[in-house]
Specification:
2 domains; 3 helices
Length: about 250
């Protein structure tokens, strides 16, 4: 009986030890579980914060990408604009080149015009200085003239581009240049030759305004005079420009 009691007491003691061990293990397990839960909560909190940081960084990355795309688009537009500006500049340079060429040509033409005008003024001024000089057939000045001699004198002593020897011969010496059958084409300094049949018989210097200066026997003058262009010349004449024309 005593032996059974001892065995029972030993079993009870062992059971208590087991219960104590189980209690200790349960407490340790609970602590470990709580620590694990706390660690998991901390990890989750950290993960949330990390996720938010990642999302913010991603948002910034997306903004940078959007800005980069915008910059690329603007750069593309700028390249297109630069290309257009280069084309416009090329066209402008071409227009400037044409304008410079036109200006140069205009300056050349103006210079020619001034030179021609100066020569014409010299011719007409010399012709007017001989107003009243007597008409003498075959004379070429300086105080007596016939029509072709007068034309020769005023040109020979200013420009020197015609010959003498009669109206017909003189016309042939200057008719290689500008010749017209229209009196409205006449300009200051032109010579107007009157055709009688097939022969040029008279010449006058046109001074503008429908007026001519010439050595003539017509109208009873017999001297160098300024007159209007005779109506009889309306269909039988040639306008000749000894000094090159500037249009």
């Amino acid at each position: 009986m005593v032996r059974k009691t001892k065995i029972l007491m030993a079993l009870i003691a062992a059971l208590l030890v087991v219960i104590a061990v189980i209690s200790i293990l349960f407490i340790d397990t609970k602590n470990l579980l709580e620590e694990a839960q706390a660690a998991n909560a901390a990890y989750a909190k950290t993960a949330v914060k990390t996720q938010k940081k990642i999302e913010k960084k991603q948002a910034k990355i997306d903004d940078v990408k959007d800005n980069l795309d915008t910059v690329k688009d603007k750069n593309k537009d700028l390249k297109s604009e630069v290309k257009s500006l280069k084309k416009a500049n090329a066209r402008l340079e071409k227009q400037i080149g044409k304008a410079k060429d036109a200006q140069y040509k205009a300056e050349v033409e103006l210079k020619k015009y001034k030179q021609r005008k100066s020569k014409i003024d010299n011719v007409i001024n010399l012709a007017k200085s001989k107003l009243g000089c007597r008409y003498v057939h075959g004379r070429c000045g300086p105080y007596y003239f016939d029509c072709q001699g007068f034309a020769w004198y005023v040109y020979h002593n200013t420009v020197g581009c015609i010959t003498t020897g009669g109206c017909h011969k003189q016309f042939n010496s200057v008719s290689y240049g500008y010749v017209s059958n229209n009196l409205s084409d006449a300009k200051r300094g032109d010579l107007i030759y009157f055709l009688k049949g097939s022969y040029y018989s008279h010449v006058a210097l046109y001074i503008g305004g429908g007026k001519i200066i010439h050595a003539t026997t017509g109208g009873g003058y017999h001297r160098v005079v300024i007159t209007s262009i005779p109506r009889s010349w309306a269909s039988s004449f040639k306008v000749v420009r000894p000094i090159p024309n500037v249009k």
